[in-house]
């Protein structure tokens, strides 16, 4: 018998973007959207258009570009949010408006300061506004995990009557346990009189590490859409990880009555892309996409795997997109080879000018590093995008760093600020510290450094180092990235990239605050 379909709704670019420092530019969102579409994600939640003009434009750009997935925007249950959202997504070939209002006693009383009956009326109005833009309307009772079930039944019956087509049950604060959450979905499907008119969806947060377990329990109790994010990105402890949901359902087809449409070989490339863009690295022991997820260290395991893979492996590494680093290009590769390899790994560079700039960078890199892998190309193009996307107020011109045993490390930086060349030097506890101090002597940003991390992009001592720098200033948090075979240069680029983001980005709203 044919299996039912489990709809995969990706919210990496909306809930994932609500993680401090994970905000994405329009170009970054377009790249992620293309990868999600390639992976055959059913619904892409591209952002919260009312948050800022930049968010509106990013959602609209994604809506214009994506053809095979539904493109969704989030809106609070008020007219302005919904109209902004409707305008942003209506250009999509398949648009959806997702509106929400809190239904738990604590949220209604303390956050909304509304009576339950007012919340119901507002929710119905919201669905009606959304339907002016599309028939595909999703409604979420925020904090459903802590809401009264009788109240949920009342409000959900009304919004379904008003025309909502998907009802999403969020465990907003990650409070529920798998049995209870599955039971809630079953009870709602049984008790809401018009429940058969809609797709039931779930959206679980990971505060107790249960987001995936809760979502799967809901699927076993009739949910047919799961909202999730690449690498489990999301507010606080994150959301259910897309890769874990998809592979659990695919691997345990003996248990699940449904399956997804996902091309699982695109999972690891998607994970890498999101980690690179957000600067949130994946822990090595993370299921499916962690570097060690398919590594067998213990001798007894290695022996077993060599004799028969399924002694210790329940999935195949290649099925989720793990391929060994492939040598793709070298010093003598031409522009066409460069362009076609970029296309093969799903990177589309629109303008000739951007392609020429990327090709020049590739040649510079090939001078320093003989073997260029797909991962190097990804990093190179990410940097190219960074420079095009962010209005570059600060730009690194050159960097000299010196370190010697017994001497104090020292750095000299030449950079431009709004086109004017400035330079400075500083000592520090190491060359990276000295470079950051030299940059600060010029910029005097007054930011706080929250995170500094370095990752080798490929193997070998000539690998590029990919650096993430997280800065905070006045309540705003941004991540900057830089890549180079010299990690001191990569660090300076990442620091300057973060400063540019702080300088250029307009204030945005968080839908849930
Ligand atoms: O966690 C949550 O409740 C949300 C809703 C907006 C769906 O993100
Ligand atoms: Zn959420």
Features:
single chain, 513 residues, alpha/beta, TIM Barrel, 4 domains, 8-stranded parallel barrel, 16 helices, 21% strand, globular, binds 3-methyl-2-oxobutanoic acid, binds zinc ion
> What is the level 1 CATH name of the largest domain?
Alpha Beta
Question: Biggest sheet, open or closed, and with what strands and sense?
Answer: 8 strands, parallel, barrel
Which ranges are low-confidence, i.e. pLDDT below 50, for 5 or more consecutive residues? none
Name the ligand types: 3-methyl-2-oxobutanoic acid, zinc ion
The number of distinct β-strands equals 18
> Residue-averaged pLDDT, rounded?
91
CATH superfamily of the largest domain: Aldolase class I
CATH fold-level label of the largest domain: TIM Barrel
What topology, given as strand order, has the largest sheet? 2-3-4-5-6-7-8-9
What's the gist of this structure?
The protein contains 16 helices and 18 strands. By secondary structure, the chain is an alpha/beta fold.
Give a structural overview.
The chain is α/β, with parallel strands linked by helices and 513 residues long. The two termini are 46 Å apart. The chain is globular and about 75 Å long. The chain has helices at 26-38, 53-65, 79-89, 105-112, 116-131, 149-162, 178-191, 211-220, 242-251, 267-278, 299-307, 335-344, 352-368, 374-389, 431-443, 487-504; strands spanning 4-5, 7-10, 43-47, 70-76, 95-102, 137-142, 166-171, 199-204, 225-228, 258-259, 327-329, 372-373, 394-402, 410-417, 420-427, 448-456, 465-473, 476-484. Zinc ion is lined by residues 15, 170, 172, 203, 205, 235.
């Amino acid at each position: 018998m044919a299996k039912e379909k489990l709809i995969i709704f990706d919210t990496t670019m909306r809930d994932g973007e609500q993680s401090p420092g994970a905000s994405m530019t329009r170009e970054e969102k377009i790249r992620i959207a293309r990868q999600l579409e390639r992976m055959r994600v059913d619904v892409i939640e591209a952002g919260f258009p009312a948050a800022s003009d930049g968010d509106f434009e990013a959602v609209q750009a994604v809506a214009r570009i994506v053809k095979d997935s539904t493109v969704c925007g989030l809106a609070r249950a008020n007219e302005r949010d919904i109209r902004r959202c409707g305008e942003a997504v209506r250009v999509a070939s398949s648009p959806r408006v997702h509106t929400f209002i809190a239904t738990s006693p604590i949220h209604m009383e303390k956050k909304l300061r509304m009576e339950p009956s007012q919340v119901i009326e507002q929710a119905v109005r919201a669905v009606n506004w959304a339907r002016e833009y599309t028939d595909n309307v999703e409604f979420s009772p925020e904090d459903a995990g802590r809401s009264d079930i009788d109240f949920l039944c009342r409000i959900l019956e009304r919004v379904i009557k008003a025309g909502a087509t998907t009802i999403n049950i969020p465990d907003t604060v990650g409070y529920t346990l798998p049995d209870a959450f599955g039971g809630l979905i079953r009870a709602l499907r049984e008790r809401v009189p018009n429940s058969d008119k809609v797709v039931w969806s779930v959206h679980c947060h990971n505060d107790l590490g249960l987001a995936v377990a809760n979502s799967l329990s809901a699927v076993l109790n009739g949910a047919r859409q799961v909202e999730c994010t690449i690498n489990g990105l999301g507010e606080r402890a994150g959301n259910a990880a897309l890769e874990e949901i998809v592979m659990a359902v695919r691997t345990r087809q003996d248990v699940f009555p449904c399956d997804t449409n996902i091309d699982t070989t695109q999972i690891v490339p998607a994970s890498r892309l999101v980690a690179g863009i957000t600067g949130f690295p994946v822990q090595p022991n993370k299921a499916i996409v962690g570097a060690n997820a398919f590594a067998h260290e213990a001798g007894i395991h290695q022996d077993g795997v060599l004799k028969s893979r399924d002694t210790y492996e329940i999935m195949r590494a290649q099925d989720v997109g793990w391929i060994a680093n492939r040598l793709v290009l070298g010093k003598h590769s031409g522009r066409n080879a460069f362009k076609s390899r970029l296309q093969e790994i799903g990177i589309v560079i629109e303008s000739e000018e951007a392609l020429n700039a990327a090709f020049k960078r590739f040649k510079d890199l090939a001078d320093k590093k003989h073997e260029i892998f797909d991962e190097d190309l990804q990093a190179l193009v990410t940097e190219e995008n960074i420079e095009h996307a962010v209005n570059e107020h600060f730009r690194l011109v050159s960097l000299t760093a010196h370190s010697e045993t017994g001497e104090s490390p020292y750095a000299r930086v030449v950079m431009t600020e709004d086109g004017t060349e400035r330079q400075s030097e500083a000592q520090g506890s190491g060359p990276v510290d000295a470079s950051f101090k030299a940059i600060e002597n010029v910029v005097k940003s007054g930011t706080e450094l929250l995170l500094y991390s370095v990752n080798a992009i490929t193997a070998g001592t000539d690998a590029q180092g990919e650096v993430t720098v997280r800065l905070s200033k006045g309540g705003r948090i941004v991540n900057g990235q830089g890549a180079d075979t010299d990690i001191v240069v990569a660090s300076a680029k990442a620091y300057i990239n973060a400063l540019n983001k702080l300088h250029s980005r307009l204030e945005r709203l968080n839908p849930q605050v």
